[in-house]
Design brief:
Helix content is 26%, strand content 30%. The protein folds into 2 domains: 2-54, Spermidine synthase, tetramerisation domain (Spermidine Synthase, Chain: A, domain 2), CATH 2.30.140.10; 58-272, Vaccinia Virus protein VP39 (Rossmann fold), CATH 3.40.50. The termini are far apart. It has helices at 58-72, 88-93, 109-118, 138-142, 169-178, 196-207, 255-261, 265-272; strands at residues 2-5, 16-19, 21-27, 32-38, 42-47, 50-54, 78-83, 101-105, 131-134, 149-155, 179-191, 212-219, 227-234.
């Protein structure tokens, strides 16, 4: 069987996946897009040689990226999803009945189209009337917006190339300016096993802009380092508290997981003081 060797920009190891079939291979204006069939994970979306989602385990990531902040807010109405061209984050956001509007800002239209064709269970809600698609850089979309957004969810590729615009102080400031007083911002921030310095750097940049910054994690089998982090920020409210009842259908996220996911406070402090030794 052919093999796919992942080219993760920051990983100290390399994953190898068996390829039963290459279902799609093309080059968009922004990146190389590939869809393969693997015997264990099912279909896998790969961008510039890096695994983005797999049919088998995508729900761990999409549920944890979206539901923590959407339960920390008492009744989110307007949400921005940046990146996430596969549609998984949008699908999860729409499970919240309070959500009236989702701005879905993906730079690469081809990722949306390929996902609609090859990942129907993930991209299933992209054309929902509550969703407005904007094919542009997320940093340009949030620059200068009014403060009317309840949650900004960043589901980008790794922090390289055109995704770096989503990890600058300028971007974090635009996000803060477009959030309501109870609003939350969440972004992926790589792995605690492999990318501790990147996690700290993202956290420190966020702390330079937001009064409340925190970190939670989830186990993701197919992202390098597995112990995946999500950096979360607000103008004051803590994301550790659930202000909305858990009523949606989820496979992994739950009330208990919401509370367990956050780093214990002493561990978080040690991390930020660069005293966690591994
Ligand atoms: N869950 C995946 C992961 O962590 O590997 C990410 C999946 S999603 C397909 C990532 C998307 O972010 C890509 O489709 C990419 O085009 C998009 N993206 C990257 N940088 C962006 C930017 N600056 N603005 C909008 N979308 C961006």
């Amino acid at each position: 069987m052919i093999k796919f060797y992942e080219k993760d920009p920051y990983a100290p190891i390399q994953y190898t996946y068996e390829v039963e079939n290459i279902l799609y291979k093309g080059k968009s204006k922004f990146q190389e897009i590939m869809v393969i069939q693997n015997p264990h994970f099912g279909r896998m979306l790969i961008l510039d040689g890096v695994v983005q989602i797999t049919e088998r385990d995508e729900f761990f990531y999409h549920e944890m990226l979206t539901h923590v902040v959407l339960h920390a807010h008492p009744a989110p109405k307007k949400v921005i999803v940046i990146g996430g061209g596969d549609g998984g984050a949008v699908r999860e956001v729409l499970k919240h009945k309070s959500v009236e509007k989702v701005y879905f800002v993906e730079i690469d239209e081809d990722v949306i189209n390929v996902s609609k064709k090859f990942f129907p269970t993930v991209a299933c809600d992209i054309d929902n009337p509550r969703v407005e698609i904007k094919c542009m850089d997320g940093a340009d979309f949030v620059r200068g917006r009014n403060a009317d957004i309840d949650a900004v969810i960043v589901d980008s590729t790794d922090i390289v190339g055109f995704a770096t615009s989503l990890f600058t102080k300028e971007f974090f400031t635009s996000i803060k300016n477009c959030l309501t007083e109870n609003g939350f911002y969440v972004t992926l921030s790589e792995s605690l096993h492999f990318h501790k310095d990147i996690v700290i750097e993202v956290q420190e940049t966020m702390k330079g802009v937001f009064p409340m910054v925190d970190l939670y994690t989830a186990p993701i089998a197919t992202y390098a380092g597995n112990w995946w982090t999500f950096s979360v920020a607000s103008k004051g409210p803590s994301p550790r508290e659930m202000r909305k009842k858990f009523e949606i259908k989820a496979k992994y996220y739950s009330e208990e997981i919401h509370h367990q996911a956050f780093l214990p406070k002493d561990m978080y402090e040690k991390l930020m003081q660069r005293k966690l030794e591994w």
